[in-house]
Amino acid sequence: MTGLAILDVSRDGIFVFLKVAGPLMIVALVVGLIVSLLQALTQIQEQTLIYVPKIVAVFAALLFMLPFMGDALAGYMTRIAARIVSGG
């Protein structure tokens, strides 16, 4: 396996990781920002208040995005398996 092939597999893996994890991280960021804004507006300074809405939102986004995530990971595995079968 050449260095170029290794870089290609690595680049593809990083893009798949970003496609799979990116939407969940964006949802967590947006929900955290909204809850923090609400805490600042209402002057409620409870540090544990942010976790429950964030967990619920990320779980809901995970259920919604699961087919897309599975398809992206299956496509990556298919490309890796095709490289293995072709000998590199």
Automatic annotation (TrEMBL):
Topology versus the membrane: Multi-pass membrane protein
GO biological processes: bacterial-type flagellum assembly; protein secretion
Key word DNA-binding present: no
UniProt key word Transmembrane: yes
Main location: membrane
Function text: Role in flagellar biosynthesis.
Family assignment from sequence similarity: Belongs to the FliQ/MopD/SpaQ family.
PANTHER family found in the cross-reference section: FLAGELLAR BIOSYNTHETIC PROTEIN FLIQ (PTHR34040)
Protein name per Swiss-Prot or TrEMBL: Flagellar biosynthetic protein FliQ
Species for this entry: Methylobacterium bullatum
